[in-house]
């Protein structure tokens, strides 16, 4: 028999699945629903093998659940708006829409090449007006409900992409796509009021039991609930400050007696007021604004301050005036944009105080330490203790002191206890063309006017140019000029477009009824399919897409669109696919196909020059350590690629791609092929009756078959795909050992082959269909139910029992399952290790826990 022809088989079965509509989902089913979804891709070009791991994982889940009797929805679409399309338009002189849809065509073909069980009739592209017209209506509903608003605010500005970034999109002070150092600018922006749901988003996290703990913790930290106090410090020169007081939020009101300064954000109104008459302060603020607004950027920057000369009165200490500084580490977006500094008990405050020679007074003393001997060196003390040097708070523990300080502030009418959140409202304005237009008009007479629903969608103009920096919509000669919907006078369209996370915050609901023309999706279909039962994607989206989607779902429920609050019942975050990196002598990156091994050295194939081999890294086009999807599929077939992506590592961990790995997967695939089409003994016909008796080898293999069915089923339920593949390899070995010499060997071999083919179906679906047909079945494997294990064959005849002497493990014994107590005792007392442990001592009693433990008490 010739080797398995992957190209021929995969083409055949993909066409047959498509022609028969095998994966088309419908709400009219008596089977329980199961909605599995992978985070949809941005159509940036060609996929490499590292891109398809999460799609392969989702496909295994979809096929497995379908075989288990579920009505499965498994859709695919395209997160198609975004700045890379504009960059490509500039670089290649091609319209973003053309570039995007050409990429979609290529990537769709690549996904289909992998045999993924998608319902392609539900395909969506978020850049289509048929899609984004619905989110424009949602925005108008949010606006009417008070969930959307416009205000001037300090924003993260990416000077390379010329657009605003959300805090979540600033990574270590740089733009998440461009890598450029982010700056601060003040702009009028549109926001969604995600903070209105802060407590709800936080409180619901424990109920997401099928989410990874690390993702829930990341969201909890990002929402950042803090309990503390707001207090108002009176200033000594209200006229110069422009205000009689500066309001501060703190979580450590217990340390107020240790305060030595106030620090305000460079963007605080008082700082702006003082800078009007102080050029040096204005220059300092400008320098601060060249660092991003994210906490990461602030924390990593050198702590710098500017003394304003302004003083603030301490609320508890009569006559004490604290200097007011402008400090680059205070965020305007958190709390009130002002803090009091207690250097002894906050490391950031201590660093600042040491630099500017400000007082450091410890007021929390660790238990058991003499207050007179306790000093602060280079490290602030942030642990528990007792208050000292703190007037009426002396002698109290930290938590009691917080309460007492809060009560005193309230009694003095200079503060109150409160709760704040780190979470900020979501700024959704972006200054770019290739995004969904924000559906409002600016009228000099009427102000901001929503576009009437009948005029949606506000579609992007196609005749744009990218010949100068900035937003092409702003430069367009006619598009932005319209009449006001309210008064009819000349007005201007909003030229900002939505952040692309807007589109991905509700696409999962659109898949429920993608052809709905009313409100984005049918309420009935959404009620049937949502929430998504299993969502799969990268952990890097934990506080971006995933948090926004949770908020969006709640907002849509509030506006009458949905009945659910959580979009994703289960979440799995897959690991990356890694590959070694290669660099030429000139430092340029090389593709794996550009290098080869000669005489034990890695060299450049073109000229034999030496190549530096780097560490394993996530496959990345920028570092060229990628393996093309077509290269793998052409050489080995889609099923071989799928097998390696699933077998060598748990799905939530990184997986190394190697030639040895793909060769090994290919060898196993062909071994399985030969086992079924060239079995070691001729197989009886399908449906043949079982023999009256089985020989010893056949009985052992039957047990292995049914244990594998049970264990593989359990593995797939738990997403232990690598363990499942290992079990299938073991079963393949067991079946290959049947040589026909024992009673029932041939029948058991067929039983095993049929079970093995059904179990391998979700992993290698093309090969499985081919083998199912070779076994004589006319039905499709994809329509065949999952195998069920026989409980009588999964139970072991023997068990391993621990033997203890006075509670210490001394031996383990193989015993017949449910052996009588007398038999178990005799076996234990005869074991040499137990005899040595007894050392002739008298036995008081023997405790037997059937099938588990024997404890000899001496």
Q: What is shown here, in short?
A:
The chain is of the alpha+beta class and 858 residues long. The protein is built from 28 helices and 37 strands.
Average pLDDT, all residues:
93
Please provide the count of β strands.
37
Q: Describe the strand arrangement of the main beta sheet, using strand numbers.
A: 2-1-26-27
The chain-level structural class is alpha+beta
Helix share bin: 25-40%
Q: Would you write up a description of this structure?
A:
- The chain is an alpha+beta fold.
- It is about 35% helix and about 20% strand.
- It is built from 28 helices and 37 strands.
- The strands form twelve sheets. Strands 2-1-26-27 form a four-stranded parallel sheet, covered by helices on one side. It has a four-stranded antiparallel sheet with strand order 6-5-9-19.
- The longest helix has 22 residues, at about 695-715.
- The radius of gyration is 34 Å and the shape is globular.
- The two termini are about 65 Å apart.
How is the secondary structure organized here?
Blueprint: H1 6-20, E1 33-38, H2 53-67, E2 71-73, E3 77-78, H3 83-92, H4 96-113, E4 124-125, H5 129-144, E5 148-158, E6 163-165, E7 170-171, E8 174-175, E9 183-192, H6 198-203, H7 213-223, E10 225-234, H8 238-241, E11 245-250, E12 261-264, H9 269-275, H10 279-288, H11 295-300, E13 305-313, E14 321-327, E15 338-341, H12 347-356, E16 364-365, E17 386-387, H13 398-411, E18 415-421, E19 426-427, E20 429-430, E21 440-443, E22 447-450, H14 472-475, E23 481-483, E24 490-493, E25 497-498, H15 501-504, H16 507-510, H17 523-529, E26 534-537, H18 545-558, E27 571-573, E28 577-583, E29 589-590, E30 595-598, E31 601-604, E32 612-618, H19 629-636, H20 638-647, E33 655-656, H21 659-677, H22 696-717, H23 721-736, H24 745-760, H25 765-774, H26 791-794, E34 798-805, E35 808-816, H27 821-829, H28 832-838, E36 845-849, E37 853-857
Parallel strand pairs: 1-2, 1-26, 3-4, 12-14, 26-27, 28-33, 34-37
Antiparallel strand pairs: 5-6, 5-9, 7-8, 9-19, 10-11, 10-18, 12-15, 13-14, 16-17, 20-25, 21-22, 21-24, 23-24, 28-29, 28-32, 30-31, 34-35, 36-37
């Amino acid at each position: 028999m010739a080797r398995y022809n992957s190209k021929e088989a995969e083409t055949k079965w993909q066409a047959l699945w498509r022609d028969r509509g095998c994966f088309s989902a419908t709400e009219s089913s008596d089977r329980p629903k199961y909605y599995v979804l992978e985070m949809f891709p941005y159509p940036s070009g060609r996929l490499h093998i590292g891109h398809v791991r999460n799609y392969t994982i989702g496909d295994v889940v979809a096929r497995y659940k379908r075989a288990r009797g579920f009505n499965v929805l498994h859709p695919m679409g395209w997160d198609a708006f975004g700045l890379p399309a504009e960059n490509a338009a500039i670089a290649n002189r091609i319209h973003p829409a053309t570039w995007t849809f050409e990429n979609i065509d290529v990537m769709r073909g690549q996904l289909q090449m992998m045999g993924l069980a998608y319902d392609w009739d539900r395909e969506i592209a978020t850049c289509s007006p048929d899609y984004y017209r619905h989110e424009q209506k949602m925005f108008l509903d949010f606006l009417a409900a008070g969930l959307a608003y416009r205000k001037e605010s300090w924003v993260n500005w990416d000077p390379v992409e010329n657009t605003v970034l959300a805090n979540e999109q600033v990574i270590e002070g740089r733009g998440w796509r461009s890598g450029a150092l982010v700056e601060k600018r003040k702009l009028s922006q549109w926001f969604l009021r995600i903070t209105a749901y802060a407590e709800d988003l936080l409180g619901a996290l424990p109920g997401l039991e099928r989410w990874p703990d690390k993702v829930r913790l990341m969201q909890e930290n990002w929402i950042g609930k803090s309990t503390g106090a707001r207090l108002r410090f009176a200033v000594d020169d209200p006229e110069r400050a422009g205000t009689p007081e500066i309001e501060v939020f703190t979580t450590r009101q217990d340390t107020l007696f240790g305060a030595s300064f106030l620090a305000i954000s460079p963007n605080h109104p008082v700082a702006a007021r003082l800078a009007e008459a102080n050029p040096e302060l204005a220059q300092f603020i400008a320098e601060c604004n060249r660092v991003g607004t994210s906490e990461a950027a602030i924390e990593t920057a050198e702590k710098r301050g500017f003394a304003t000369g302004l003083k603030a009165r301490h609320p508890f200490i009569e006559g004490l005036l604290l200097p007011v500084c402008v400090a680059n580490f205070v965020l305007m977006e958190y709390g009130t944009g002002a803090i009091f500094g207690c250097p002894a008990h906050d490391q950031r405050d201590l660093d600042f105080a040491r630099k500017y020679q400000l007082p450091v007074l410890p007021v929390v003393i660790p238990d058991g330490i003499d207050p007179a001997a306790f000093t602060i060196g280079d490290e602030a003390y942030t642990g528990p203790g007792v208050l000292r040097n703190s007037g009426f708070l002396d002698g109290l523990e930290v938590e009691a002191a917080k309460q007492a300080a809060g009560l005193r502030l309230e009694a003095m009418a200079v503060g109150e206890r409160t709760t704040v959140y780190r979470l900020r409202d979501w700024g959704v304005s972006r200054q770019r063309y290739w995004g969904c237009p924000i559906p409002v008009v600016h009228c000099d007479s009427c102000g901001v006017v929503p576009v009437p629903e009948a005029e949606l969608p506000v579609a992007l103009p196609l005749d744009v140019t990218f010949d100068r920096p900035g937003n092409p919509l702003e430069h367009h000669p006619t598009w932005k000029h319209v009449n006001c919907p309210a008064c009819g006078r000349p007005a201007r369209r909003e030229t900002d477009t939505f952040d692309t996370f807007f589109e991905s915050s509700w696409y999962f609901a659109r898949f429920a009824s993608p052809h709905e023309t009313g409100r984005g999706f049918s309420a009935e279909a959404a009620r049937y399919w949502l929430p998504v039962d299993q969502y799969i994607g990268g952990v890097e989206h934990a506080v971006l897409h995933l948090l926004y989607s949770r908020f969006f779902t709640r907002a849509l429920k509030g506006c009458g669109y949905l009945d659910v609050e959580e979009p994703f019942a289960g979440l799995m975050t897959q690991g990356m696919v890694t590959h070694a990196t290669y660099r030429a002598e000139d430092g340029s990156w090389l593709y794996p196909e550009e290098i080869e091994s000669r005489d034990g050295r890695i060299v450049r194939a073109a000229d034999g020059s030496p190549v530096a081999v780097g560490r394993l890294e996530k496959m990345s086009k920028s570092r060229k350590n990628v393996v093309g999807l077509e290269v793998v599929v052409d050489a080995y077939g889609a099923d071989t690629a799928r097998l390696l992506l699933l077998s060598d590592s748990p799905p939530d961990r990184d997986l190394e791609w190697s030639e040895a790995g793909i060769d090994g997967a290919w060898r196993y695939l062909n071994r399985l092929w030969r086992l079924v089409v060239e079995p070691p003994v001729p197989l009886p016909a399908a449906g043949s009756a079982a023999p009256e008796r089985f020989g010893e080898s056949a009985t052992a293999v039957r047990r292995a078959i049914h244990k594998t069915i049970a264990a593989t089923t359990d593995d797939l339920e738990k997403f232990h795909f690598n363990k499942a593949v290992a079990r299938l390899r073991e079963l393949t070995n067991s079946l290959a050992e049947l040589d026909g010499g024992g009673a029932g060997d041939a029948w058991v071999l067929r039983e095993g082959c049929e079970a093995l083919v059904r179990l391998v179906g979700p992993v290698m679906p093309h090969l499985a269909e081919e083998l199912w047909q070779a076994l004589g079945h006319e039905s499709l494997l994809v329509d065949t139910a999952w195998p069920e294990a026989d409980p009588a064959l999964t139970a072991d005849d023997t068990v391993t029992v621990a033997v203890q002497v006075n509670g210490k493990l001394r031996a383990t014994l193989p015993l017949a399952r449910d052996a009588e107590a007398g038999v178990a005792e005799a076996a234990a007392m005869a074991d040499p290790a137990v005899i040595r442990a007894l050392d002739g001592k008298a036995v008081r009693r023997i405790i037997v826990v059937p099938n588990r433990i024997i404890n000899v008490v001496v």
